[in-house]
């Protein structure tokens, strides 16, 4: 009786979730995946049955990272609420069979549809689009075998009304572009390989019957991103040929992201000249060869620009200020700026200047003052060395940008000049940065007591102050200016790495600890920090940055030994929200202790380890996969034999594929000659977001696609 009395009292005094207002409940339910709402939650009671079908929850359905969804759930979802869905995002659902797409035909009122990364044939696409008469935005992949002649007249009628198209090309083709006569936004991703699986060289010529001309007269946004390879360059020139004949009057964003050398031709020069005469741009990105040595920027006109990318260009700071920022005039509209690899962008002139020379702080100050509303800034892949002038350090000037949400910096730019000059070299700097014979040195254990650790930090450093001023920063990348990943895109693994910049030699544990001030940090990348002794700063980040979801660490400390392993394992025990982890470090030992610590990351979904001469314990990997139920991607490129790798990969797939439909496992020797063939089968979502190392800050304009 006493127990019953206590329970009834708790019921009277407690809060019943169903007593909340509908508005509050709808807000809570908005955080629940739509598949759970419709297939599970709405079956619990009458009130939730009604709320779960509210238009605010069914209007937009996002399945792009719902790794637990399978074909049966999609079928049931479309059957229950198909007519209520106006926006459907299935991007990257590579594990769903192509027959799943047939159920999209139930969504008669669809306005926006994203099928990037899904298996869709020409016939299936035709059947589906024939029923979607209200569609205005579409994203698809164009794979080998795509045949535009199989598209029905009803399908082409739907495409003629589409105003936004995102198309990822895996084969030379126009895709559905010629059918989209009302295009206002066109996004093209070129992922065509130069060689077939059989080793034959591919041609950039379009297939027979694909000579139809794209319609660009209403185009406002043109974006093209090219993967490495000459075929991609050949095909994009065919898309640009029409633009060179007649530039759309309403064009306000023109962006081409091309790695390596992409030479300018007569047609592209005519296009740029026409743009200079006829349009005013709000966003611009061009291949470096189109800008270097030309007076193009002097003639282009800008309206209210929100995005600029001059990645890898030889643009000098003088030209940047005079031609882009109009001599330091107000440019408050600019929210995203990518100067990655732009080695002279903070110097008055590039002529006779060495890349390692000090920057001109007045140029950076003009940039900061003019572009005071910047939210995304990328200064990586360059040597930005500050002078000894008081108050003019790069970190001090950047601290004025209070709206920054993402920032990428080279390691050598965050060091204190005075400390670099006065402090004698520490022991790790005397150790050669090579893969040769290991050198034994005394390494102190990191302090367990954070109070003691704080006494060791230089809290008056310029980088510490910068981190303290950017309290709302969500993404931070600190990357060595000479760092290159061991896993390039379409080439064999790199066997030797360049030594770090001399100015970067003093950057280590105290600088990493300074990052722990970023309470709202969600994504962190640290690469080529040579003075990491114990990794103690990582523990501080694990404790303080509780929103951290993505962590990428590469080549920290000595190259011959993973000196931060103990600290990393302690850090991982606190990362409850971590979803993506990428580690790239020679001689990394993925053993039982590491995976036991990693098992504390209960939200982890994707793991990638890249390690030359690295080792792994198969039993530890299997135990980890069994305990971390959310993991759907496991990529390991180590120093183990091909037999060990294949056996482990097969064991993981055999044990967990049935329960995890999206499971993608690649375990392969890093230096094996067939690595590139293995990489080409990795789903683009994983390859682009985690497996391949790259700087992602300001990589694209914000909100380029939904």
Main traits of this protein?
706 residues; alpha/beta; 4 domains; 20-stranded parallel beta sheet; 30% helix; 15% strand
Description:
It holds the Pfam family LRR_FBXL18. This is FXL18 protein. It comes from Brachypodius melanocephalos (black-headed bulbul). The protein is an alpha/beta fold. The protein has four domains: about 20-120, no CATH class; about 145-300, no CATH class; about 305-385; about 465-485 and about 500-690, Ribonuclease Inhibitor (Leucine-rich repeat, LRR (right-handed beta-alpha superhelix)). Helices cover about 30% and strands about 15% of the residues. It is built from 26 helices and 22 strands. The strands form two sheets. The protein has a 20-stranded parallel beta sheet, with helices on both faces. A two-stranded parallel ribbon has the order 18-20. α19 links the parallel β14 (about 475-480) and β15 (about 525-530). The protein is globular. The termini are far apart. Mean pLDDT is about 90; it is low at about 420-445 and about 450-455.
